[in-house]
UniProtKB/TrEMBL annotation:
SUPFAM superfamilies linked: C-terminal effector domain of the bipartite response regulators, CheY-like
InterPro entries listed in its UniProt record: CheY-like_superfamily, NreC/VraR/RcsB-like_REC, Sig_transdc_resp-reg_C-effctor, Sig_transdc_resp-reg_receiver, Tscrpt_reg_LuxR_C, WalR-like
All residue ranges annotated as the HTH luxR-type domain in the record: 140-205
GO biological process: phosphorelay signal transduction system; regulation of DNA-templated transcription
Single Gene Ontology MF annotation: DNA binding
Superkingdom classification of source: Bacteria
Modified residues (4-aspartylphosphate): D54
CDD domains: LuxR_C_like, REC_NarL-like
The entry's keywords: DNA-binding, Phosphoprotein, Transcription, Transcription regulation, Two-component regulatory system
Presence of the UniProt keyword DNA-binding in the record: yes
Claim: Transcription regulation is one of the keywords in the record: yes
Full protein name: LuxR family DNA-binding response regulator
Ranges in coiled-coil conformation: none
Length: 210
């Protein structure tokens, strides 16, 4: 199968090194994107059958890009290639439909191993994650029972990309109240950003927005 690859990473040196390696392995690099929005535009135009995707991207984070790409009308295999260490990301990416998860600290050869594994219908995970991943998948469930209905509404709007002021207007609350509820949600779920919030809600299907 001809590997037509779109690289998505906001670090030019990472893209250069990764592209050089993949070209040596016989892959065809059809394009390089430096942010999530550009990645979606290029993917729609170029129709790659492989995407090497970082998580920490400007404009749209990697998880949002992943969801959009897997809903596309052409077959695409996505390998997450990231320096992010939080355990939530592995589970979220795989459950969302990624073919593999490779840390940037791993040898570049791991990328080809992940692609070859995916081509055979398998999911590639870091060796250190395989043993504990099942237990980790269940961990968010012990947290979400603490989320109130009001906080769930805040989560729903945050995942839609709404700002604190917009949420305050929609829910008819003061910005101070909204900010406090947002902080409370992030603390309860043990996350520090909207990207991490997305990953946790992806893992935990009980947290569908109200």
């Amino acid at each position: 199968m001809n590997k037509r690859v779109l690289l998505v990473d906001n670090h030019p040196l990472v893209r250069f090194g990764t592209a050089s390696f993949l070209i040596e392995q016989g892959c065809h690099i059809v394009g390089e994107a430096e942010d999530g929005a550009q990645a979606l535009l290029m993917a729609e135009e170029l129709k790659p059958n492989w995407v090497i995707l970082d998580i920490a991207l400007p404009k749209l984070n990697g998880l949002q890009v992943l969801y959009h790409l897997l809903a596309a009308d052409w077959p695409v295999n996505i390998i997450v290639f990231t320096g992010q260490e939080l355990k939530h990301y592995v589970n979220a990416c795989i459950q969302a439909g990624a073919c593999g998860f490779v840390r940037k600290t791993a040898p570049l050869a791991s990328l080809m191993c992940a692609m070859e594994s995916a081509a055979m219908g398998h999911v590639w995970l870091p060796a250190s994650r395989v043993q504990g991943i099942r237990g980790e998948q269940a961990s968010p469930h012990s947290l979400t029972h603490r989320i109130s209905d009001r906080e769930r509404k805040v989560i729903s709007l945050l995942l839609q990309g709404k700002s604190n002021n917009e949420i305050s207007q929609i829910l008819n609350r003061s910005p101070k109240t909204t900010s406090a509820q947002k902080k409370s949600v992030l603390q309860k779920l043990n996350v520090s950003s909207i990207a991490e919030l997305i990953s946790v809600t992806t893992i935990n299907r009980r947290m569908n927005p109200l």
